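Q: Could you fold this chain for me?
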Amino acid sequence: MPVPGKAVAGAVQPEESGDPLPGPPDFFVECAQPFHSAPTPMALTGTSAADRAKIIAEALPYIQKFHGKSIVVKYGGNAMTEDRLKKSFARDVVLLKLVGMNPVVVHGGGPQIDELLGRFGKKGEFVQGMRVTDEETMSVVEMVLGGRVNKEIVNLINGNGGRAVGLTGADGGLIRAKKLLLRGAQDSGEVIDIGQVGEVESIDPGIVHRLHEHGFIPVIAPLGVGKRGESYNINADLVAGKVAEILKAEKLIVLTNTPGVLDRDGNLLTGLTARRIDELFADGTISGGMLPKISSALDAVKNGVNTCHIIDGRVEHALLLEVLTDEGVGTLIRRR
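A: Sure. Below is the predicted structure, expressed as structure tokens.
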């Protein structure tokens, strides 16, 4: 948002709903309703009606500004597991598409992977926020991300009037990857092998552009393919960041289970620059699962993405609040 300091998988075929396209998410629909039936007495007070009209009017400059622009959304956390949040997310994505923006969804699936691993008697292990992925775990990751989770998101969006297409990095060579090796403690020289975990070498934007041109919403599972056809599990935050970079997206929006980036006292940091982020890395304020999120966000804004937003996915319609209103629900990251 332009307000300073504002918080700011085998291919899945498109499944179109037979129902008519729905209108905007609930609070936009409710705001607009009183003005659709002039002869009927208004059910709202003058103040309430004015407040709701203000919300609708507030969206106009953002719709104009971001029309035709790519908005990459990393979908994860509670927003993927709670029914009310899943529905509001799907409706938000459909609305952004209907008003002329080009949303791209990149999803995770950590809880679902852990659940299936548990059935096989395995427990997830993480190093520097990355999942250790042996051969057996890789099979589970592909099954969950490229199948169950990707298809569920596609169905959610299509069921709310969108036209989503599910993809993994293997489809059409969308994501080329190589093995990721982590570094140990500073100056130790240690190299840590965490299995079939990859990092992005290249992304083919043509696939995404063609889907956008034909009115589709890409839904991407973070699985990559190597030079010899080997599969790699890639952190979804990193994939989202690279997709945003290659598309020169207007925004990268990361949904999390926290209000945004917090300081050591638990206070929300509403605006961050690259320099401030380096300081938070150095003093350990940013650690664990937040490391890849902030690292990918920082790389994205350094490489052409206008802004990145770390937002609270536990808030209904968080995506719309971030894109279409003056107030935000998280942390804004800029180059400077």
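A (continued): The first helix runs from residue 26 to 32.
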